[in-house]
Design brief:
By secondary structure, the chain is of the alpha/beta class. The chain has three domains: 72 residues, no CATH class; 114 residues, Aspartate Aminotransferase, domain 1, CATH 3.90.1150; 248 residues, Aspartate Aminotransferase, domain 2 (3-Layer(aba) Sandwich). Helices cover 45% and strands 15% of the residues. It contains 20 helices and 15 strands. It has a seven-stranded mixed beta sheet with strand order 2-10-9-8-7-3-6, sandwiched between helices. Strands 11-12-15-14 form a four-stranded antiparallel beta sheet. A two-stranded parallel sheet has the order 1-13. Helix 12 links the parallel strand 8 and strand 9. The longest helix is centred in the N-terminal third of the chain and has 20 residues. The protein is globular. The chain starts with a helix and ends with a helix. It binds pyridoxal-5'-phosphate (PLP).
Length: 460
């Protein structure tokens, strides 16, 4: 029931036309599409009407206008916005995973700015193949016979299963029929591919003989999935890849290996656990190895498929390959990223490896510089994480700037997020934590100015 007072309040809400006649809203409509601005005005005035029905007073025209301008600024700004990752999580999925190397950025820009020989053979002047060049570089870097690249690793797994096992059986350990994150579940992907999942072993222990016993005339492949975002501790067993390859050879079935992160460098060199490398997967005899482009490879979003030429060719010819093909900018960036590995300069050229290999002293120096400039906080030992579904539980020792005391960590974090560019920090036990490891050195000045202005504000 609306009271008379409410009816009066409802009538006092300015109409869509009235709001559109406001000079600032009119300017916005002139700059952008009139239809889009009109929709926004309608949404805001409808919202005001609902608020009145809920008992709030009707907003003035000025309030409505301000709300519209704020919403317009938030919705129609350039997006995604560059942010500074001071969380200490190197591959932060919510912040876009791997930042790319200068060479990869340049290559993507070059591919975007003009025409390119993406599918054109400059020697013959005829149509070329988008895949042949990247296939060669993937093979050169990984040691596989052939390679190809698709949109992401999720589509790589779907495509490989569809091409190799549609209508047939694929054997997977119960401990590896897992969810990777973002709704990517091995049993669901298997179903989509048309392959039949045959689970063997138990959640915690599976042996090579379990796979062997499950082989039938309908078996198309064995799939191994790297547990990249969790670890099972205690009474556990999963066979080594080489043991599965032996089972596969005995029954003449290929072993497909989803490495997830797939590193080309030995992570032990940086004081971490050993993450299985792509090269090992190939030497150990996996027929197909799959991994992401934007995890420990440190490049653009991509799914890399490499292995035996005959199988890779079969995958490349499957109709789904066209549906999950890579975009030219990402392909250019991937090619540049792989070349860094080929030159053996990944550690110095690729940002995530620069971050992972940063020395304790350089991190501490930067944290001290931030503290001195901010005039607040304390240097503390901390742990950075690799993240992004790589090396679960693995951390790297770091030095963080911890800001506590009279300030409220949540409100300081919000102020840093509202800085230009936004600085994303972490809160731990009531303290605001900033880790220099994941901040690119050229971003230090922004962190400092964000800290200075956020701490200067009363209430910080
Ligand atoms: C991350 C991951 C995927 C999905 O890779 P995207 O490139 O994110 O699509 C698949 N399998 C495993 C084991 C992973 O870790």
């Amino acid at each position: 029931m609306t009271s008379n007072g409410q009816k009066e309040q409802l009538r006092s809400i300015p109409s869509v036309d009235t709001v559109l006649r406001d000079a600032r809203v009119g300017a916005l409509a002139g700059e952008l599409s009139l239809a889009a601005v009109t929709n926004l005005v309608r949404e805001v005035t409808d919202g005001a009407r609902e608020a009145v029905l809920d008992g709030s007073p009707a907003p003035e025209l000025d309030q409505i206008t301000r709300q519209i301008l704020e919403r317009a600024e938030r919705t129609w700004r350039n997006w995604p916005e560059r942010v500074i990752n001071a969380t200490g999580v190197v591959l932060h999925t919510n912040l876009g995973r791997a930042p790319m190397s200068a060479a990869a950025i340049e290559a993507a820009g070059r591919a975007a700015a003009g025409y390119s020989d993406l599918e054109f053979d400059l020697e013959t002047g005829k149509r070329g193949s988008r895949n042949s060049r990247i296939s060669q570089v993937i093979a050169d870097v990984t040691g596989a016979q052939a390679g190809m690249a698709v949109n992401n690793n999720a589509s790589a797994v779907l495509l490989v299963l569809s091409a190799i096992a549609e209508g047939k059986e694929v054997i997977v350990s119960r401990g590896e029929a897992v969810e990777i994150g973002g709704g990517f579940r091995i049993p669901d992907v298997m179903l989509r591919s048309g392959a039949k999942l045959i689970e063997v072993g138990t959640t915690n222990r599976t042996y090579a003989r379990d796979y062997s016993a499950a082989v039938t005339g309908d078996t198309a492949a064995i799939l191994k999935v790297h547990p990249s975002n969790f670890s099972v501790q205690g009474f556990t067993h999963e066979p080594e890849l080489a043991e599965l390859v032996a089972v596969g050879r005995e029954h003449e079935i290929p072993v497909l290996n989803d490495l997830g992160s797939g590193t080309l460098l030995d992570t032990r060199r940086f004081g971490m656990e050993r993450e299985p490398t792509v090269q090992d997967s190939i030497t150990d005899g996996a027929a197909i190895t799959m991994f992401s482009g934007d995890k420990l490879l440190g490049g653009p979003q991509a799914g890399i498929i490499c292995g035996d030429r005959e199988l890779v060719d079969r995958v490349a010819k499957h109709p789904l390959a066209r549906a999950v093909r890579m975009d030219k900018m990402a392909l250019a960036a991937l090619s540049a990223t792989l070349l860094s590995y080929l030159r053996e300069s990944a550690e110095t050229e690729i940002p995530i490896w620069q971050m992972i290999s940063a020395t304790a002293e350089s991190i501490q120096d930067r944290a001290a510089k931030w503290r001195d400039a901010a005039g607040r906080g304390e240097l503390k030992p901390g742990r950075s994480t690799v993240g992004g579904g790589s090396l679960p539980g693995e951390t790297l020792p770091t030095t963080v700037l911890a800001i506590s005391g009279e300030s409220n960590a949540d409100s300081l974090a919000a102020k840093l997020r509202a800085s230009k560019p936004p600085v994303i920090a972490r809160i731990h036990e009531g303290e605001l934590i900033l880790d220099p490891r994941t901040v690119l050195p050229e971003e230090d000045k922004h962190v400092i100015s964000a800290l200075q202005s956020s701490l200067r504000d009363p209430g910080a």
